[in-house]
Design a protein that fits this description.
two-stranded antiparallel sheet, about 350 residues, about 75% helix, mainly alpha
Length: about 350
Amino acid sequence: MDSLMGPSRDNPEENSRTDGWKESNVCKRYLIGFCPNNEQDNWFHNTRRKDINTCTKTHSDRLKADFEKHPDRPKYEIRYEKDFLDFLTGLVREADAWIKRENGNAVGTAGIKMTKLPAKDKQKVSELKAQQEELMKLAEDFVEKEDLEASKQAVEAANKASREIEDLKEKHTFMSESDKVCGVCGVRCNPNMESDFQAHLDGRLHEGYTIIRGKVKELQVKVEEHEKAKDKEDEEKRAAKKAKENSEKEEKKSKADTEKDGKDKDGKDREKKDRDRDGKEGKDSKDAKDSKETKNGKDAKNGKDGKDGKDRDRRDKDRDRDRDRDRDRDRKRSRSERKRSRSERKRSRKRSRSRDRRR
């Protein structure tokens, strides 16, 4: 009943579950195919394969149907199939080892003298044996009647029948071949006995290993296809991740370039302002110098070479010197800022080239 309705058939609450197949006491091999060593239906029962353990888990058709309809089936099915493939591959490996041993044992079965009579000759041998027995009995009767000549003729006829029997057997006597080992299940059969080999083909063990080997091929293809699909999915994920990283890098690079362009523009604006200021200061200095020369010329012309003129000249010189010193300081500051701006641009370009090389 467990195999038909499940182990929880008497428990309404448990019986309403559709994921009871997840329990550890449920045979997962049976869910996705078959269980060859099922305790209730063991394919290896009464065979020489004693090293195959019996499965005592639950084998339920209802749980199998629940599994096939459950939305979580794809998630668990591939895992169960991989485990089932490992189990069946182990059975095939053991069968191949058995076949190898049996092939070695079959070598010593060759060269045995055997007689195999056709049905027609078997009937003929039976008739000759009956005739031989009758003639020998008749010969004994003739001896009792003291008819030795008749007894002698009867014995000769019996010997003739015996020779015919031997001739028929000799005609159908041959040296036996080595036993034939089945390449599917490993059963060793007499190739001279067709009925023996056919009986093995119709047996449960041969049928079971035929199913097992077929299932192994089926699962190998299915698992391989799943692995390829998984590898493709992983590759797509890696490609998407790499594309995202490249996009982020490009975005950062674009942002850095924008900031660099802004700094370059600010630097150019500062340089322009510095040039304009230097030009204006130069013009002011020239105008002041011209004014001074004009004034000095007028003072010379007017003959004012006194103390006041010398004081004004000294003050003018002090102002000119202070102005020149301020202008030099501004120029140095401007050159320092331009130099710093160029250094920042060089470092930015160097970092950009370094990132490109790493990519």
